[in-house]
Every structure is written in structure tokens, then in C-alpha cells.
Design brief:
Chain lengths: 94, 618
């Protein structure tokens, strides 16, 4: 089954890929989402956001699904139709 | 102590403005060993003043924040101005009572002023009394003098900084001053140094104004010596390398500054919008760091000795909100002047922020007070006559900019805004619309979406403040590790630890942003090498805890206790209407109970056992 999600890039990721957001069709897994994203904006995005050895999103990123950080959502995440994915590089402020 | 081989210059200047006298005293190593410098040493001194007042039969509540009894302290710490001590270009200011809150006044600033105070020969300045005419304090190469400021009174921050810097001359010369807001005793007036750096919170500019003290200019060429230069070089190299390699301090903050947080916090559902009606701003992208970088950003600026350089230089080249050169706005000022007021025009926010610097206003309390006024107005609570034509509606950029200068000059409706949101909302019969804690307007994180910061706001000694215990770091940013922002569990420990550690940072005195890369061990090593004391991680945190408790004891004597450790009703009772935190409120009581237990406090008051355990002499 295919799901359609929106991926929004921020800060240096937006600057590097010169894109604010893309619509992606994937099978609902994070791994497939990253693969499909790379077909749209380029292969570099895989290493920028994904740890191939651990098969998970890189630790220092803020990868949010509908505003919730993936690290707070537990294992076995299944994306749903209409989900909004927000990806931030390591950032801080105050 | 007169030696300067341990991070301290060894001298404190005591200025009695009522008598017009200046006295030089030695910095006490004994006090410094227990409280470091900066905030810790100041808290110790303020407690002594309070004790003396009480012994003379003066009830603490009788101390007028804008009267001669109030005490104002400018302070540096052992790390300030030490070359190689990461981001040590800061100073701390405290007052016994804030005019905004009635509680303790406390604020911190960067730039160059802190190090240059030390280069002029002093660790701290204590200001007592009230001058009968405007004066400024000049400290040049160890010589302090009170001078007439009649020609400076009425001038804005930029003119005052420029005139005094030119008058004194020299290489390491810096000016901390007040603008019209401080002179007019506006309750959220701040102290500004180096044109755009401010000890912003709790209205310390009004305290300075009430004393008739327009400015403090410092200049000098003395060097700060460290106890163990070889060890310090090694630790410094390690820490600077850690900061350079850290993705936040080495890349994120230098490249984008603090405003890059707008989209992060909005995505997490915690960016307060329209006086905290919700935590999701539909126009966040328009006022974001990304947008600022692509529009009005010109360059970056670093404080003294800082490898991060998060400061932004901006310019709005044309249009109704033209500003040819400014600094900021930062994340907090964009939020307070923009998101909180519903204003989505970034050029108007840059202009409003510029006015805050020019007139000497805290942008957080100013923006939040204007936002509260907008809600009061939209609820029909403000008679048209009071507004005098000011069209205070959410999202009105012109009204925002006009309201800022009106606040500084107490002009028209500005006389109400100048009192801060708490008094403003009380005057118009809707106290619950003031989004403040202990009278201090809360900053840019809605705790319904970030629970730990709610506990911190409620228990922060100076009132609604984020940098007392910045739990946003683990809750949203994942630093040093990720915890769930929507769960109240475990937040008490994080809050307490961050509050204690921040006391250490503010007593060192250096920048809190270093803690994105450096931990307690780094601070213990840096401080040990500079002071010559052998400080363990445990001892460093214990010093922080001691400072936090003594500060709390001052609050208690001023009449604050557990009843004041709370949040506005909106956050406790109105569920977040949308976003990832939809349906959430702040479960404050649950977190607070755990927090008090960890602190060893009963109803917001340190127990005798805790005071004894921390070796606080009362």
C-alpha cells in the first residue's frame, strides 16, 4: 500500500537542496521514504539524514512527524497518508 | 584578596549615589569559593543587604524597587575576560527588587562590557542610594569617578554609547547605559551595552534610572591572570575544539543565529501565538530565521572571546519600517514582537526590535505586554479614550511599532503599557490575560507543548524565564539527550539540574550557549584551572544549588513562596487547541511536588536541613 506524505526541509537542508518541500509517495516505512526522497532531490540526502548502518534517522537531526520527534514515537513507525515530515539539522537558540 | 592570579581582579567598587562617594573594597576569596562571582557573589551580597535592612526594622516589602534602598550590582566572574575561556564576554546585573515583579531583579548581557570592566581593574560594581542629579560612572585604568550626566539625560542608547566611548577614548572602552525607557522608569526598561546587547529582563534599566545613573563607561588594559596557565591552555583547547566540532555551536548558531528556532518550535506546537491563545502560528515561516537570512540579514557579530558568533546584523533598506543598520532580532524578540502580537511583517519586527535597543526596552516583556493589550482591546476591555487612537489589534504592524516607542516615553496609552502586562491586565479587570509568572512575562515556549519548561517557568526565581533552566534543550532539541516534551514525568530532575548548572554559568560569568557543547566536567576543569581550586563536577553543581537556594531565600523574605510558583490559568486549564500538543494542559502540580522533594523545599521554601546541607550561613 502506498502513502503520500509531505516533507519540509529547514535551515541548511533547505539551502543545500534548494527546495522547501516535496511530496513523496512511499510504502510507509522510513527507509523507503528516504529512498523515494533521494529519487526526487538527489542521493546526497540519504547520507545527510539516514544512518545506513543503524538503518535509522541520524541521531543529531530533528526529524518530526506531524510535529512529534521520531525519537518520541517509539519503534516501528508507519507513515500515514497526509503526514507532514519536518526535517531540521542540529539547531539551537534561546 | 588583591592578587589577580586566579581569574579575579580582586577589587569591588561600591558607589553610594546619595552621598556621591566611591569606595574600593577587596573581592573576598572566601565568598568566591562558595559562590564564584557574577550572579552567585551578587546573590550573596544582596542577602547581606536584606539581612541588614531586616535587622534595622525595615520590612522587605517596604523596600521601594525605585527608591534609594534598592541595590544594583554589576558583576563579572572568574571566567569573564580570560582569553581562551569560551564565550566569556558576559556580565550579570542584579537588584534586590525588580520594579516589574517586586521580586529579585536579574539579567545577563554579552558584548564587550563585562571583560572591559575587568580590564579596568574591577570584578564588580555595587550601586547604592539615589543621585540628586543625573550622573554617569567612569572607570578608566582603575580610576573611578562619578561625573555629571546632565548632557546625556534624554539621549537614546546609541547616542549615549557613542558619546561616552568617544569621550573616554582608548581601545578597550565600552558603555552600559539606559535609554529614555530607563529614565522614564518604564517597568520593563533594560540596561544596554555596546549599542545592541542588553541585560534585558526584570526592569533593571528602571532601577538604574531611579538612581539617576545614566551610564557606566569602562576602559582598561589590565590582563586577567589565571592560576594554572599550562592546565588552562590544555582545558581551553579541549573545550574550544568541542565547541568547534559540535554541530550546534560550531555550525547551527554561527550560521543561522537563534531565530532559526522559530520554525522548530512552531512545528513542535509550542510557539505562542496571539497572547498564547495557541502554540501554532500559521505565519511562522514569514518571520522565521530562514526568511530573515534571505531578506534583512547582512552579517554576523560575535561577543568578546566568543567562537560562536550568534549575533545578527540586519538592515531594512526601504519601506515604512526602514532601518539602515541594526542588530537582531533574535528568536525571543521575533517571537514576542511578532508571533505573540500576531504580526507577520518581519520588517516591522526588525524596526520594533531596533526601537527596543534604541530606547532601552526588554523586547520580551514589551512584546508580551503589547500582545496582552491587543487581547484586552479585542475583548472590549479598553475604553477607546485610553487608546488615544492607537489601533491595537492582533496583526497590526504599525500599531506594534508605535506601541513600542509610546511605552518608552509613557506617551498616551504607553503609560499603561509601561507598567508591564500584569499591572495592565489588572487595571482592565482581566488579570488572567497577563502571560506572566511572578509578574515577569514568559518567553517563547508554550509549556502545554513542552512540559518541563512549564515547571521551570513556575519555579524560576526571577519569574517567567526560560534561561533559568532551559529544558527545551533535551525536550525539543535533543541536547544532551532526547526526552518527550509532552510527558511530565522526569522533568523535575532535568529542571533542577539545569537551574543549578545555569547558576554556575551565570556566576562564571559566560554564555549559556556553551552548554550545548560543554558539560559540568568542562566547567569544573575550566574553573579549577582559572581559580586554582580543585573543583569536582559534584562541587560545581553544589555551588549552583547553593546559589539557587540563597536566591530563593531572598524571594521568601520578599514574600514569595509556593503560591507564586505557578502558571497563568490559560496554561493550566485551557487545552492547547491545535497542533501536536492538541488537548494538552500543563500538569504543574504533579511536576512541582516532585521538584520540591528533589530541592528539599516545602511550599517553595528551602528547609533548615537543606540550608545547613548547602552550608549557607544565615
Amino acid at each position: 500500500m502506498k502513502v503520500h506524505v509531505k516533507v519540509v526541509f529547514y535551515a541548511s537542508l533547505r539551502e543545500k537542496y534548494k527546495v522547501r518541500e516535496v511530496s513523496v509517495e512511499c510504502d510507509g516505512t522510513i527507509k523507503n521514504l528516504v529512498e523515494k526522497m533521494s529519487e526526487i532531490i538527489g542521493i546526497d540526502i540519504v547520507d545527510d539524514i539516514y544512518d545506513r548502518y543503524k538503518e535509522k534517522i541520524r541521531e543529531n537531526l530533528m526529524f518530526m512527524i506531524n510535529g512529534r520527534n521520531i525519537k518520541d514515537l517509539g519503534e516501528d513507525i508507519e507513515l500515514k497518508d497526509g503526514d507532514v515530515i519536518s526535517i531540521f539539522p542540529p539547531l539551537a537558540g534561546g | 584578596m588583591t592578587s589577580s592570579s586566579n581569574g579575579f581582579m580582586g577589587k569591588i567598587l561600591r558607589a553610594d549615589l546619595s552621598a556621591g562617594t566611591l569606595k574600593v573594597e577587596n573581592t573576598s576569596l572566601e565568598v568566591a569559593r562558595k559562590y564564584l562571582g557574577g550572579k552567585g557573589y551578587s546573590v550573596y551580597l544582596l542577602y547581606q543587604y536584606l539581612r541588614e535592612y531586616i535587622s534595622k526594622g525595615v520590612h522587605p516589602s517596604e523596600i521601594d524597587p525605585l527608591g534609594p534602598e534598592n541595590i544594583l550590582i554589576f558583576s563579572t566572574g572568574p571566567g569573564t575576560g580570560v582569553p581562551g575561556f569560551p564565550s566569556s564576554g558576559r556580565y550579570h546585573v542584579m537588584a534586590l527588587r525588580s520594579p516589574l515583579t517586586g521580586s529579585i531583579g536579574s539579567a545577563n548581557s554579552g558584548g564587550e562590557w563585562g571583560p572591559y570592566l575587568k580590564f579596568s581593574g574591577f570584578d564588580m560594581i555595587i550601586v547604592e542610594g539615589v543621585s540628586d542629579r543625573p550622573v554617569y560612572l567612569s572607570i578608566v585604568e582603575g580610576e573611578a569617578e562619578l561625573r555629571d550626566a546632565g548632557d546625556l539625560w534624554g539621549k537614546n542608547v546609541f547616542d549615549t554609547c557613542r558619546i561616552l566611548r568617544d569621550r573616554v577614548g582608548g581601545k578597550n572602552t565600552s558603555v552600559a547605559c539606559i535609554g529614555p525607557a530607563g529614565e522614564n522608569l518604564v517597568h520593563m526598561a533594560c540596561i544596554v551595552n555596546d549599542e545592541h546587547r542588553a541585560a534585558g529582563r526584570t526592569g533593571l534599566g528602571a532601577v538604574m534610572g531611579s538612581k539617576g545613573l545614566k551610564a557606566v563607561v569602562v576602559s582598561g588594559s589590565r590582563e586577567v591572570q589565571v592560576a594554572d596557565p599550562e592546565r588552562f591552555r590544555e582545558v581551553s583547547r579541549r573545550c574550544l575544539e568541542a565547541m568547534r566540532k559540535n554541530p550546534v555551536t560550531g555550525q547551527g548558531l554561527p550560521t543561522y543565529g537563534t531565530s532559526i528556532l522559530i520554525n522548530v518550535i512552531n512545528t513542535a506546537g509550542g510557539l505562542p501565538y496571539k497572547n498564547w491563545r495557541t502554540g501554532v502560528n500559521p505565519d511562522a515561516e514569514k518571520i522565521s530565521g530562514e526568511t530573515l537570512a534571505g531578506t534583512y540579514l547582512v552579517d554576523r557579530r560575535a561577543c568578546w572571546g566568543c567562537p560562536i558568533g550568534c549575533g545578527r546584523i540586519t538592515s531594512v533598506k526601504s519601506g515604512p519600517f526602514q532601518v539602515l543598520s541594526s542588530e537582531g532580532p533574535e528568536y525571543e524578540s521575533i517571537w514576542a514582537l511578532g508571533s505573540s502580537t500576531g504580526v507577520k511583517e518581519l520588517d516591522a519586527i526588525v524596526k520594533a526590535n531596533h526601537y527596543c535597543d534604541e530606547f532601552g526596552l526588554d523586547p520580551i516583556s514589551t512584546g508580551s505586554t503589547i500582545a496582552a493589550a491587543m487581547e484586552l482591546n479585542e475583548e472590549g476591555c479598553i475604553p477607546k479614550g485610553d487608546l488615544q487612537g492607537l489601533d491595537l489589534r492582533f496583526g497590526n504592524p504599525s500599531a506594534l511599532v508605535e506601541a513600542v516607542w509610546r511605552t518608552a516615553y509613557r506617551a498616551g496609552f504607553g503609560k499603561y503599557l509601561a507598567l508591564g502586562s500584569k499591572r495592565l491586565c489588572e487595571i482592565y479587570g482581566r488579570p488572567e490575560l497577563s502571560m506572566s509568572v511572578k509578574g515577569l512575562e514568559m518567553p517563547a515556549y508554550d509549556p502545554r507543548a513542552i512540559k518541563g519548561i512549564g515547571l521551570n517557568y513556575a519555579t524560576a526565581n526571577r519569574g517567567g524565564c526560560h534561561v533559568t533552566g532551559y529544558t527545551v534543550s533535551p525536550e525539543v532539541l535533543g541536547i544532551p539527550e532526547k526526552i518527550d516534551p509532552l510527558k511530565p514525568e522526569g522533568k523535575a530532575m532535568w529542571t533542577k539540574t539545569f537551574q543549578d548548572f545555569t547558576c554556575v554559568v551565570n556566576s562564571t560569568v559566560n554564555c549559556l550557549f556553551t552548554t550545548f557543547a560543554l558539560g559540568v566536567r568542562d566547567y569544573a576543569d575550566l574553573l579549577s584551572a582559572v581559580t586554582g581550586w580543585s573543583l569536582t563536577e559534584g562541587e560545581v553543581l553544589r555551588i549552583g544549588e547553593r546559589i539557587y537556594n540563597l536566591e530563593r531565600m531572598i524571594l521568601n523574605r520578599l514574600g514569595f513562596d509556593g503560591k507564586d510558583d505557578t502558571l497563568p490559568r490559560r496554561l493550566l486549564e485551557e487545552p492547547m487547541p491545535e497542533g501536536p500538543a492538541r488537548g494538552h494542559i500543563v500538569e504543574l502540580e504533579k511536576m512541582k511536588e516532585e521538584y520540591y522533594k528533589l530541592r528539599g523545599w516545602i511550599n517553595g521554601v528551602p528547609t533548615k536541613e537543606k540550608i545547613k546541607e548547602l552550608e549557607i550561613e544565615i
